[in-house]
């Protein structure tokens, strides 16, 4: 067991609680690990740690920090095919400290990725494009036996510099993978 998540009900956008305990999934729990929040159409996701919302009344402890973001490209034509996603996490220096330093409250990882600015402090990954397989009549990626069923949710993340080296496959980064399951009005 690694992590568990529960989608919060009665929210205007998709919002997941991430916990270290699959039976204790409360926001006030000691096992609360963080959260994943989506925009209204399900194309942009932000990953937060267990801190408090900035300016929250009665907030005890530390202010939450962004741990990453995931963005899915709009599918305006509604065509079936592979999703296009970008994921971003703070880069770390040789000592393991985060290099991401927000310049203001509105300076988010998501804004940096969308505006293609300030990316020297972050690691930007995108999904490796699958290849069309004529025999199977489907898009395919080589998961070396790990994936047994074809799905639009399967992905491998690589960087622009080294597209041959897979940094993450579906199932190895909980919050990024969790974003893949959520409904995406603009991408389906």
From TrEMBL:
InterPro entries: Tubby-like_C, Tubby_C
Pfam family, one: Tub
TM regions (residue ranges): none
Domain Tubby C-terminal: 1-172
SUPFAM superfamilies named among the record's database cross-references: Tubby C-terminal domain-like
Signal sequence segment: none
Alphabetical list of PANTHER family matching this protein: PROTEIN KING TUBBY, TUBBY-RELATED
Family under the similarity heading: Belongs to the TUB family.
Protein name: Tubby C-terminal domain-containing protein
Organism this protein belongs to: Chlamydomonas eustigma
Lineage: Eukaryota, Viridiplantae, Chlorophyta, core chlorophytes, Chlorophyceae
